[in-house]
């Protein structure tokens, strides 16, 4: 690496007045090098930079066109919404004016339906009361019948003596044997 550096340094010290050579003085060569580099970049990069700027310009213009179309669409939607609002306000006014008579009609219908429901409930109540009365009467009848039956059984048991009891059992056994022979 030292040899390459030495060769540049030695080229810079050639004593020829009109010949080509390298200047190793950085402060003297920097503005020249920068102007050469900028000149080359401008010459060759001008087309690329122009294309990039044109593309950016086209994208901005298309974005502006799209925004304008969206704005027009939004304005149309706003107008439709305003027209709908006017229509709804007119309908609301109509309902308000017609609504009071409709409310009175509905109120009368509700009162009639309620009184009809009350009559039905009164009828159901009366039917339920009648049913409960019949059920209570039937329960009392059953209790009276059971008490009478128990009284009759008590009387019958007290009247039966063991001989009568033995004859009744024997007769029943005979009937059961006869029924068993018939079924065989």
Explain what this protein looks like in three dimensions.
The protein has 184 residues and is mainly α. The chain has one domain (33-167). Helices cover 91% and strands 0% of the residues. It contains 3 helices and no strands. The chain has helices spanning 2-12, 26-159, 162-183. The longest helix has 134 residues, at 26-159. The chain is elongated, with a radius of gyration of 62 Å. The termini are far apart. The model is unreliable at 3-16 (pLDDT under 50). It is a single-pass membrane protein. Its main location: membrane. It is found in: Membrane; Plastid, Chloroplast thylakoid membrane. Belongs to the ATPase B chain family. Keywords: ATP synthesis, CF(0), Chloroplast, Coiled coil, Hydrogen ion transport, Ion transport, Membrane, Plastid, Thylakoid, Transmembrane, Transmembrane helix, Transport.
């Amino acid at each position: 690496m030292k040899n390459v550096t030495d060769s540049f340094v030695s080229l810079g010290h050639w004593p020829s007045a009109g010949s080509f050579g390298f200047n190793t003085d950085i402060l003297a060569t920097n503005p020249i090098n920068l102007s050469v580099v900028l000149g080359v970049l401008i010459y060759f990069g001008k087309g690329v930079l122009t294309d990039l700027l044109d593309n950016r310009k086209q994208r901005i213009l298309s974005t502006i066109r799209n925004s304008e179309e969206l704005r027009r669409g939004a304005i149309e939607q706003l107008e439709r919404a305003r027209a709908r609002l006017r229509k709804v306000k007119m309908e609301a006014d109509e309902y308000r004016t017609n609504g009071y008579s409709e409310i009175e009609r509905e109120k009368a219908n509700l009162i009639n339906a309620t009184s009809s429901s009350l009559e039905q409930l009164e009828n159901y109540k009366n039917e339920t009361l009648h049913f409960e009365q019949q059920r209570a009467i039937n329960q009392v009848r059953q209790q009276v019948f059971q008490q009478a039956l128990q009284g009759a059984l008590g009387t019958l048991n007290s009247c039966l003596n063991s001989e009568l009891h033995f004859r009744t059992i024997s007769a029943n056994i005979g009937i059961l044997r006869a029924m068993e022979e018939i079924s065989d």
